[in-house]
Each structure stands twice: as structure tokens, then as C-alpha cells.
Amino acid sequence: MTSTVLTLSAAADPLLNQVDQLIKDSLATPFPLLQEMVDHLPLAGGKKIRPLLVLLSGRVSGEERNASKRRALVSVAAAVELIHTASLIHDDIIDRADRRRGQATLHSRWESRSATLVGDFLLSRAFDLISGLEQSWTLLPLMARSVMLLCRGEALQLEKTYDYSISEREYFRCNYLKTSQFLAACCEAGGRIGTAVPAHIRALREYGFNLGQAFQIVDDILDFKDYPEKLGKPVGADLEQGVITLPLIYLARRQERFRRLLEALKTRRIMLSPGLRESIRRAVRESGALDYSARKADQARQAALQALQVLPQTPARTRLSHIAEAVLARAGESF
């Protein structure tokens, strides 16, 4: 058992079983085809980082003993997992991805129109779970804005496809929209349900933001390594689809030959053959790009841990720190 699994195991939460059950109950439908597609989704089990962030953030000031607030935490934890899964379904359609977490994607097994319907169904169920809560007046705007930013992130990524001239600042902006702002929203939602004081809610958002940046950079690193089980998608997928990641930005900035090569890919003057793809991946590994990216991920991890310092010393805070350590360990174990 790897240290990542051990660390995440230490951060697990007894309410996750209730989250799984609520997701299952929420997605029951009388339409057989829709139910078959829903049942195909890998919703049960897994690490469930986003629901876990909601549950733990709801207890940063101490164990939540109010039954209605515990139910609210479970409902929002289920909702964010549904939102996340819906975003993956839509991403897979846009990216024409055939595999996700070791199994066929919805649109590759059925059709894109049906897969889109499933994604929309999950989003509707997510917001229905939130709308029935006492705190819905603050949680609905929070999650609605987060989904809007997810869409903007996908649009920005499409706009920047094969654009290897983007700056690191633009790269981190895209990370914010597609990943870190949603993790920040998960933490804020939990804190608001747990009635954390404003300073604690700000700290939780800062933690989630930096955790998300570290998480995305680690994914970028793993895309150049042969660890598809850690990515949940085939390695090299980002390179194949023209998604600009930090290791590629580093390579293009340091080596003129590869910058010209990447620009040629953008204008389709050359095609990304298997041999060329492996040549680029090897150049990334040999250029120091992965070490550089790992340092950036570590800076984000340290910022996440620093944000936790204003929170009281509780088991929930300790578990949040474990999650930050585990995210970076995903990359560290693969070097």
C-alpha cells in the first residue's frame, strides 16, 4: 500500500457512506435507458475528495453534533460529487475521450446526445439536493457561480488549444477556473454549513484554492508518466488534445527547437504521430520540466497548509492537512 493511499485513508470520513447512498437514491429514475447509463458511472466508492472537503470543512471548528447540519453536509457533499461527475461527462464529450477511470466513457458506449442528457440530469439532481436546505439561500449562488466558472474554464481551454505561447499566469488562471475555484467552493460550502466564522471561511477558501492548483499541476506531471491508474484517463491525453500544461510551457520556454515544433502542431503543419508524441514526452522528462512543475505544486501545497494555520486544532483540520500532503505524494511516488 502506497503512502498516498495510507494518507487518504487517514483522511476518510464515516459520513461518506451516507453520501454514496444519497447519490444512489437521488439518481433513481423510472426511465430504463437513463438508469442504465447512470448505473454505468463509477459513482460508488473512490476517494471522493470534493465531498470529503465539504464534510471536513463543516467540522473545522469542532465536531458537528446538530443532526440537521450533518444532513446538510451530506446533501452538499453528494451534490458536489454529482457536479464534478457531470463536468467529467461533458469534458469527455468535448475531448472525445474513450476511457475514464478504466472503463468506457458514456458517449463512447452510447452516443453524445445521451451522455449530455446524463450530465444535465446529474446537475439538476445536484441543485435539487441543495435547494431543499435551510442554507440554500447562500449555497445555491455559491455553487451556481462555481459551475459557471467551470464552463468558462472549459471555454478558455478550448480557446487556448495548441497555443504553446501562453504564459504561466494564463495557465494558472485556467487551473483556477477548471479546478481550484470548485475545490475552494466545496470548502466554503462546508464552512458555511458548519457556521465557521468569516476568518475561517476565508482560510478554507484559500486552502481549497491552493489545493486545487497543486492537484492540477500533479495531474500535468502524471500525464508525462506511465501511471494511467492515478490519472483516471490515458497518459498523454492532454498532449494529444492540445491542452497546454505547465511542463510543456517550461519546455517551450527553454528549448527553441521544441517551441517551433509545438507551434507547428498548432497550425497543423505537422501531425502528432506516436513517435513525435513520445519524443516530446521524453524531452519534457529530460528538460527538468517535471522537477520544476513539482516545485510549483509543492509551493501550492505549502500555501494550502499555511492557510489552515488560522483554524483551530481539530481532527478535521488535521485531515485536511493529510489531503494536501497526499495530493503531492501522487507525483512524488512516480519519480
Give a verbal description of the structure.
The chain has 335 residues and is an all-alpha fold. The chain has a single domain, classed as Farnesyl Diphosphate Synthase, CATH 1.10.600.10. It contains 17 helices and two strands. It has helices spanning 3-10, 16-26, 32-40, 49-57, 67-95, 106-109, 112-131, 136-159, 168-193, 198-222, 228-231, 237-241, 246-254, 256-266, 274-287, 289-307, 315-332; strands at 99-100, 103-104. It has a two-stranded antiparallel ribbon. A hairpin with a 2-residue loop joins strand 1 and strand 2 (103-104). Helix 5 packs antiparallel against helix 7. The longest helix has 29 residues, at 67-95. The radius of gyration is 20 Å and the shape is globular. The model is unreliable at 1-7 (pLDDT under 50).
Entry keywords:
single chain; 335 residues; mainly alpha; two-stranded antiparallel ribbon; 17 helices; disordered N terminus
Give the name of the CATH superfamily: Farnesyl Diphosphate Synthase
Report the span from N to C terminus: 17 Å
Strand order of the largest sheet: 1-2
Q: Remind me, CATH topology?
A: Farnesyl Diphosphate Synthase
Helix count equals 17
Mind telling me which CATH architecture this is? Orthogonal Bundle
The radius of gyration is: 20 Å
